[in-house]
Each structure stands twice: as C-alpha cells, then as structure tokens.
Amino acid sequence: MSKVIKASQVTGKFKINQNPKTLSFKNNSDQKEAQSDSEKKKSRAIKKQKKILSQAEKDAQKIIKEAEKKAEAVIEKAEAEKEKILVEKDEIYKQTKSKARKEGLAEAEAEIEKKEKQLTDLISSFEEEFAREKSRIRKDVIELAVKIASIVIDVKLETEHDMINNIISDMLRKVDDNHRDIVVRVHPQLLPYIEENRFYQHINQKNIEFVSDPELRKGDCVVETNLGGKEGSLDHKLDLIKNELLKEVEQHD
Length: 253
What we know:
Protein name: Flagellar assembly protein FliH
GO biological process, one term: protein transport
Number of strands: 4
Strand order of the largest sheet: 1-4-2-3
Keywords: Bacterial flagellum biogenesis, Bacterial flagellum protein export, Cell projection, Cilium, Flagellum, Protein transport, Transport
Order of helices and strands: EHHHEHEEH
Largest sheet: 4 strands, mixed
Oligomer: single chain
Function: Needed for flagellar regrowth and assembly.
Family: Belongs to the FliH family.
Strand content: 5-15%
Mean pLDDT: 71
Number of domains: 2
Number of helices: 5
Radius of gyration: 31 Å
Structural class: alpha+beta
Shape: elongated
Distance between the termini: 48 Å
C-alpha cells in the first residue's frame, strides 16, 4: 500500500520567479487574452494581500492596546493600594507611638511590622498578576503572528508561483533510490506552474507524475511512492513554529 509523504516549506530563502509554466496557444489573440486574465488575477491577489495585511496590523494594534490598558490598570491599582496602606501605616504609627508610652514599645512595633508585611504581600501579588498578564500578551502576539504568516503564505502562492516548485524540490530531496512510481499532488491552481523538468535531477529519471488535489491547501505538497514516509502540512509546520516560540516565552517568564 502506498504511504504518503506530505510537507510544506514555510522557511528558507528562495529566488522568486513569477513567470508561470509556458503553455501553448492556438493564436496570438488567445495568448494575449490568457495573459490579460493572468494579470487580472495577479492584481486581485495583490489587492487581497494588502487588504489582509492591513487588517492583520489593525488586529495586532488592538491586542497590544488592550494589553497595555490592562497592564496600566494593574499598576494603578497596586499603587493606589500601596498609598492606602502607607497612610494607614503612618496613622497607626502615630497612634501606637502614643499607645507605646502606656503599653510598651514592643506591641507598637509588632503592629507596624504587621502592616509592613501586608504591604509587601500586596505588592508581591500585584507583581505576580502583572507577570501573568505580560506572559498572556506575548502568547496572544505569537498566535496572531502565526495566523498572519499562514494568510501571507496563501496569498503569496497566488502571485509568486515558483514557491510551489521550491516546496516540491525540498520534498523530493527526501526520496531515495528505493522509491518508485512517484506521484506528486498539489492544489489545482498551482499545477500549471510546476516546472517538471527541474525535478528529474532529484529522482534519477524515475517515473514521476504531477496531479491536482482540491483537498490540499495551496502550501501543501503530497508525494506518494511505493514505500513509506512522513506526513506533514502547512498547518503542521506553523504549529511547530508556534510551539517553539511559546516554549521560549515560558522559559523567560
């Protein structure tokens, strides 16, 4: 039974070639019309990308502003409580100082120490609350960044078609000489832009077929052979990146 090798390339430096795979047309009129349609699609994709990025920036600013307000509220509350306790401490000190003359200095000092401990404990609790809020803000920003990355990749694949060739190339590097009957599946919209000839260097002229699969995302690539392999997807890759970033946040908290 054929198993599946599936992965998406979301990192790396690629030289982007926006020229799609060359197709033959019956006449110049048909070719010009096809080129015009391609330019229109590209223009719409670029507008879509700008709109998505603009909205993502607004969402990020909103999250940051809300977090700043919450943090300021925590600090203001802590400062207010601190001032309140300090006032109470001074008042108690005055009262207990007079009382100490009659009942002894030790009892007065104990009362003052009690209030000082209350103040210390309160400040500590607010510091812990602030640290938790700070950690939550960082995690929210990471979630948003990964979401934006996923959207940007989808949009870029509509305009920078050579990205799918780089993804396929990376996948075929994992196919050794024991693999046969190779089938590469990609999203239907990206199938016309696959440069088939460039991939034979990875498979030593073995049989290879490129087919469309509407169930795949644009950043996904599935390589099927007669042997086993690994499974992956664009979402899986982004989840791995997100988890690594969240680990970094937890280690620094």
